[in-house]
Amino acid sequence: MIRGSCVAGNETAGWAVYASMNRCAATNRLAATFAAIGLRRWGTFAAFLAAMLLAGCGAGGPKFQSSDITGSSFGRDFSLRDANGAMRSLADFRGKAVVIFFGYTQCPDVCPTTLASLAEAMKQLGPDADRVQVLFITVDPERDTPALLAQYVPAFDPRFLGLYGDAEATARTAKEFKIIYQKVPGSSAGTYTMDHSAGTYVFDPQGRLRLYVANGQGADVFAHDLRELLRAG
After folding, report:
1. Which string of DSSP letters, residue by residue, matches 5-40?
2. Which residue among 41, 57, 125, 227 has its CA within the 20 to 30 Å range from the CA of 132?
3. Maximum CA pair distance of the chain?
4. Can you say whether residue 207 is alpha, beta or left, with left for phi > 0 and alpha for psi between -120 and 50 degrees?
5. How many other CB atoms are there within 10 angstroms of residue 202's CB atom?
6. Mind listing the pLDDT tens digit for each residue in 65-82?
7. How much is the pTM?
8. CA angle 69, 52, 50 (to 5 degrees)
9. What are phi and psi of 99, to 5 degrees?
């Protein structure tokens, strides 16, 4: 946890990189073992299955620059309101790549920097940006009113949406996405900042969680990986 900032450490980032690396390593070992045994016992069919196992980690797949967390069992959905009061969930954005970042409007550094990077990535994507939905989920619903979210979030890009819930919905959503956040008292009475996890999640157009983008990876990484997801459909 980094004090004096709005960001908690990249706890999830380390896990994501580990999971990503080990998923393919485990698959490679399984495929090799299966091929060695299978070729002796079942011949061509075993070789075919081994090749299929390797295909998911081979040269033919998307080349992501962030952490591939495909198959993760968390981040399945959310139920939050947008600035107009409408309930939103992942299903509302099916057909688009969805980018989710947790933060708060009074964040002094990481939140505006991440949103600015995403806005730049949208410019780099050109017409494909219309197939991307960026969602900013506040971890500070006490201060981030619908009116404030409606003003703050689209200022980076008019297509960006701010989402909020009450304290219970915020905690439930954060738990589902493995987000850590906490209030940190300020220097004067009644003031505070929010420490929170700083990574970004990316879903493919089918609504599947695919990527974790660590804090600070920048617009080029966002643009590259979104382009790869959109190309894959």
Report:
1. SSEE--HHHHHHHHHHHHHHHHHHHHHHHHHHHHHH
2. 57
3. 74
4. left
5. 24
6. 999 999 999 999 999 999
7. 0.78
8. 110
9. -110, 125
